Fold these 2 entries.
Entry 1:
Amino acid sequence: MTIPTIIYGTAWKEDATEDLVLEALKTGFRAIDTANQRRHYNEAAVGKAVTKSAIPREQLFLQTKFTSLGGQDHRLPYDAHADHPTQVRQSFQSSLHHLQTTYIDSYLLHGPSTPVGLTAADWHVWKEMEKIQQEKRTHHLGISNVNLKQVQELYEKALVKPTFVQNRCYAQLGWDIEIREYCNKKSIIYQGFSLLTANSFVLPHVQHIAARVKKTTTQVIFRFAMQMGIVPLTGTTNPTHMKEDLALDFNLSNEEIAFMENIARE
Ligand SMILES: NC(=O)c1ccc[n+]([C@@H]2O[C@H](COP(=O)([O-])OP(=O)(O)OC[C@H]3O[C@@H](n4cnc5c(N)ncnc54)[C@H](OP(=O)(O)O)[C@@H]3O)[C@@H](O)[C@H]2O)c1
């Protein structure tokens, strides 16, 4: 499947995951984000929903993640004592099993193991992910929760470059402008999460725009993100919001975009 314009996220849904993912697929979402991290995601329930939907696999974009030990609870998808490449293999195999598929569209490293730079462990993980990509078992690779130096280091030294960066997108940081600009230069696609939850204070300030385009303020945020080249993630649990998040075929003016870009810049 081609690169999606919006992704349905499946974190924190626990027992409701299967029903919500099925609802999202029925509403029209075709890209799903999950992780083999039972602490925050129920990847097996995502797989059940995907299978139940009966949507042909090639019409779906399935994205999942490798999560290092530090991000997991006791429900590990790999042997805690195995080396990093083995953990990646075991986690990836388990993801295929959970998602009831033979390939992944996008496989992300959930995050570097430290806030500064990339460690030897991160590189061992990435190298194994590269092998999986070269075996054509995932179409794309990516990384999440990164700062500028980490993306730069990864891009410069990796054999298989990341197609995606997935980050929390704060309006106060110019909607992650430093990283987005770097991504643009390197043709890396930026996926943004917490667009609403990290920026709820923005909503009252875009009411006049919402009134002009006859949409909700949340739709204005997502449309703004898209026009900025961001692929938004939405994890809504509300069927009306699902429909709204797929009804983003309107345009914000250059002035409106410029106003929103700097709305909370520090
Ligand atoms: N890589 C990472 O480390 C990481 C971290 C966090 C998230 N993620 C991914 O990003 C996904 C989205 O997470 P998120 O943090 O952006 O927040 P989210 O879980 O999507 O939460 C959005 C919140 O905004 C509310 N909302 C109101 N109107 C909405 C609308 N029209 N559309 C959507 N939500 C609306 C939702 O309530 P209702 O449910 O009532 O609509 C919900 O409380 C996750 O499920 C996960 O896949 C990744």
Entry 2:
Amino acid sequence: MLPSILDVAQLYDLQFNPRSFGKRETLCKCPFCKADSHPGKRKKYYLSLNTEDNVYKCWYCKESGGVIDFEVKLSGKAFSEVKQKYFKKRKKAVHLAYELDPYQLEIIGWKEYKRKSFKGFREKREEVLRDWKHFVRKELTLNYALFMCIAHLEGQPNRQRELLVWFIKICWDSPVPNMYERIQDEFLKPKSDSSEWAMEGTEIGRIAWKACIKTMDFELENLLIHVIYADYFNRENKKAHSRKERATQRFLLDSV
Ligand SMILES: [Zn+2]
């Protein structure tokens, strides 16, 4: 698979025009002619990276080409060597942290980090992936809880339909891919095959549902608030439970 021209440029520490970074046309100082590196040209950035077509061109020296050619020139390596780096029989899969798009990275707070230090990002990729997995799990859990509440509204078909449309939109807007399908699949599975996030979501959904029943409140936003509150309540409850357990254990140990 071809690397992105932006990643290659970062790998070789090119100097970006911050305002254009990540846009379709990202500008940076041209490392080939260096015509924009004179003190008088501080605001000039002659090298243009087209991040959609993955090509580059310098408006000054006219140096241009594709992403492999770009890395060849920056690294001084042979074309075949660079090409092999990306096209060799893929035994090792690309690390999943690199497959996260800017929106996904932004949600978990790594977008700026990757932008500012690609090398640092590479070193912390395990951490990035862990944060992402944590986020996905949380997102699935809470939305599963929400879905469970909506599924319970059998007595009010109109309201249920309205909430379902809203829920599908939430899923579409989520950075977690195929969230609606995953939740639906999970819902249709036999209970014995449930994922952990679905079990936790069911538990949270149950608490939120009770709150809805108590107040007879099935407004869209409030339902979401009930779910978030239920999640908080659930976590606090677990914490208190383990504190109590520890205290009991201590008591038992002391009394021996
Ligand atoms: Zn140039």
